[in-house]
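Entry 12.
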Amino acid sequence: MDLTETVKVALEALKANKTRAGLTMLGIVIGVTSVILLISIGSGLKTYITEQLEGMGANALFAIPGEFEIEPGGGGGGGIPGAGAAASKFTFNHIKQLEREGKTIKAVMAYTENNGTMRYKGKSHITQVSGVGPNYQEVRNQKVASGSFFTLSQYNTAKKVAVLGQTVADELFGNEDPVGKKFTISDQRYTILGILEEKGSLGGIDMDNQVFIPATTAMSQFDMEYIQSLWIQSQSSETVTQTKEEIETILLKTLDDDEFSVLDTKSILSTISSILGVLTAALAGIAAISLIVGGIGIMNIMLVSVTERTREIGLRKAVGATPNNILIQFLIEALVLSFLGGLTGIILGVGGAVLVGRFFTTTITPWAIALAFGVSSLVGVIFGVAPAFKASKLNPIDALRYE
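Predicted 3D structure (tokens):
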């Protein structure tokens, strides 16, 4: 019997048990779908964060409270949570010092973050209130879509003025133009100066759901003694290392070395890429377990199939089929099950990633598809060997006598 005939017999055997074949493929389908979907979400999140940080420019730096060291491999010593939990000691004097003494520093901005309740004509909306400097547009590389940003004079005199993110504007004002209107932030009355251009979502978090006010005003309203962090711009990407050294030298005049850390976008991207890479691999590994489960399912069903078809195997051997013909037939059946399961999983995984992409950032990577499909096919071969080998070794006389 030639290979073509063997393949034909194997496919006919699967057609005869369509329901069982479909249920057998289910584990493979779920595994491939999960792997593609989780890797797409992880890759998409990594891409979005990278774009956001790169959007701030390769010359952006941040001074944060506490110790935070970037290891050579990209890991963080102490981690972001530890840095964020440390008590800040930054003041406006530090900003003046950096602006005065930093030779390669282009801009310095205070940054604070609090939650507040926005109210306008009976509508209310709880969101993040970010205290920033008048140079926010320059430092953050984001422009005002309508209206204007607050000025240095308004910043210095701690005026109650605000710039809204697009989501806040939509929630409170709908189709009404908010520029020039007055609303309240935690019962304090503010005048709206402008609306920022849209930034989109980051891992399901709406980056436009923010209100920006002068950091001086935020410090007063929220009774803050210290600035939470400092955002700094170097003159160019080539001077970042020198700027980082200057910031550390200047801040060390009034702060201890364990009271602050200075990070640049390259270091942050390295850390985030490392963390998200490990997380994506771990999630994909967990999802891949279902591929193993699916493989075991294929093996179990194929072993049952060998038992049910013992007389058929004996008859085929009696009319001239060799052990290799029987082995190849059952291997082909297992491979077809895993192949079709993998193909179905790819369709569902890609479709799921596109659907999730409407709510989260996803990136469908060809290597994830190839990996999932390759593993599913390999699973079919590996777990199909034992049943196929058992079938090929059956004695034709005993097989024909089998009831």
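Annotation: The longest strand covers residues 105-120. The chain has a mean pLDDT of 81.
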